[in-house]
């Protein structure tokens, strides 16, 4: 493998030997992009990220994603229909730091 400059702006990488596109041994070394899919099912992502097992309680089968709700209007409608709060709770004020004395630093 070697790098060369074509016109001074674009880097060109040329592959020789086993890594070249016409080598008979290339498939045994390099996997094609078609073999590797970047798609990861959402239940697998939830399991990896939050350690959540997304299975049905009745049949123990994998649940599947039906819809993804993104808009605030739709979220408010769904929460209202379920009888849940539609507004976020008010932010509480921060507490003042405790007063420290010299004795607190020396103990």
Structure description:
By secondary structure, the protein is of the alpha+beta class. It has 2 domains: 1-34, no CATH class; 39-82, no CATH class. The protein contains 4 helices and 2 strands, in the order ββαααα. The chain has helices at 26-29, 42-50, 72-81, 102-106; strands spanning 2-5, 11-14. A two-stranded antiparallel sheet has the order 1-2. The longest helix is centred in the C-terminal third of the chain and has 10 residues, at 72-81. The chain starts with a strand and ends with a helix. 0% of the residues are buried.
Topology:
Layout: E1 2-5, E2 11-14, H1 26-29, H2 42-50, H3 72-81, H4 102-106
Antiparallel strand pairs: 1-2
Query: How is the biggest beta sheet arranged?
Result: 2 strands, antiparallel
- Low-confidence parts: none
Portion in helices: 25-40%
Label the overall shape.
extended
* Beta content: 5-15%
Count of discrete domains: 2
Labels describing this entry:
alpha+beta; 2 domains; extended; two-stranded antiparallel sheet; 107 residues; 7% strand; 2 strands
In short:
The protein is built from four helices and two strands. With 107 residues, the chain is an alpha+beta fold.
């Amino acid at each position: 493998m070697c790098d060369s400059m074509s016109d001074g702006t674009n880097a060109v990488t040329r592959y020789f030997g086993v890594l070249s596109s016409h080598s008979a041994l290339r498939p045994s070394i390099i996997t094609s992009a078609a073999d590797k899919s970047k798609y990861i099912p959402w239940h697998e992502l939830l399991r990896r990220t939050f350690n959540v097992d997304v299975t049905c309680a009745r049949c123990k089968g994998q649940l599947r994603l039906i819809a993804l709700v993104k808009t605030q209007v739709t979220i408010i409608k769904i929460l209202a229909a379920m009888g849940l709060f539609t507004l976020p709770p008010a932010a509480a004020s921060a507490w003042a730091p405790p007063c420290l004395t010299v004795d607190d630093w020396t103990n």
